Amino acid sequence: MDTFGQTLDNQAQAGLAKSNKARHVGSYLVGGALAGAFVGIGCLFMYAGVSGMYVHGSDLAGTMMGLVFGIGLVLVVFAGGELATSGMMIMPLAAIRRKVSALRAAWLIAFMLIGNLVGSIAISALISAANVFKKDSLNYQMLDAVVSGKLHKDYSEVFFRAIMCNVMVCLAIWTINRMKNEVAQIIVIAWAITVFVAAGFEHVVANMTSFSLAFMNDAGGISLGAATMSLLVAGAGNLVGGGLVVGGTYVLAARMED
């Protein structure tokens, strides 16, 4: 298994590769849109697959939501896409290792978020056109309750839940970078994602799909202002969780190996 320092170098090289790919702006935007759509598919599976358990108050609903939602990150990793939340760890590490400038790292994270939003809106439009969230259906009732709950949380709660969310996402990305077996990588992704979904943590890209679905299906009492603020706070928390808590901790830990 690689040392911490080697893994840091691998992540920094991944950041440099992202920077190089971003020279083709249109293609990079499509990569971001794909990641947003893949996470949106995870949201779809969560709402469509677990709505009965959720609406009827099953104690296992949270765990099952996490287990099925994990398909989103599995698709991002294995099908390919530019996901901002993992980029929030990778790009700061690339800047620390001087593979890219801090300004370019920040720009790339912002650009990934834009691409993710485009993909989230696009997949939400397709899902809504398919009438998956018919009024009074279990799927609709779950969407309505989940989005309403997200929008009524205090911003401090959203922020700290977002930190913990991206700790789990970036730990998954960090860990699978140190592994060679693809089946084992999928298991690690599934476990890490189950933790953050079951605990009700806040993932800015997943929320893009949930909020888009709510807008398109008149659910959750959503408004543009409330959704925007929630996404901004969640995005800030995700950045702290990925860049500072996970990335920063391993930068310090790597010094033990010197």
Describe the structure.
The relative contact order is 0.18. The chain is built from eleven helices and no strands. Helix 5 (84-96) crosses helix 8 and helix 6 runs parallel beside helix 10 (204-217). The model has no long low-confidence stretch (mean pLDDT 95). It has helices spanning 4-21, 25-55, 61-69, 71-79, 84-96, 102-129, 138-151, 155-176, 182-198, 204-217, 224-254. It is an all-alpha fold. It has one domain: Glycerol uptake facilitator protein (Up-down Bundle). The chain crosses the membrane at residues 28-48, 60-84, 105-133, 158-176, 183-201, 221-253. Belongs to the FNT transporter (TC 1.A.16) family. Keywords: Membrane, Transmembrane, Transmembrane helix.
Overall mean pLDDT stands at 95
What coarse outline follows from CA principal-axis ratios? globular
Number of helices: 11
CATH level-4 homologous superfamily: Glycerol uptake facilitator protein
> Which architecture would the CATH scheme give at its second level?
Up-down Bundle
Spans of at least 5 consecutive residues whose pLDDT stays below 50 are none
DSSP helix fraction:
over 70%
Structural class: mainly alpha
Provide tags for this entry.
For/NO2_transpt_CS; For/NO2_transpt; Glycerol uptake facilitator protein; Aquaporin-like; 0% strand; formate transmembrane transporter activity; mainly alpha; 258 residues; 80% helix
Quick description:
Helices cover about 80% and strands about 0% of the residues. It is mainly α. The mean pLDDT is about 95.
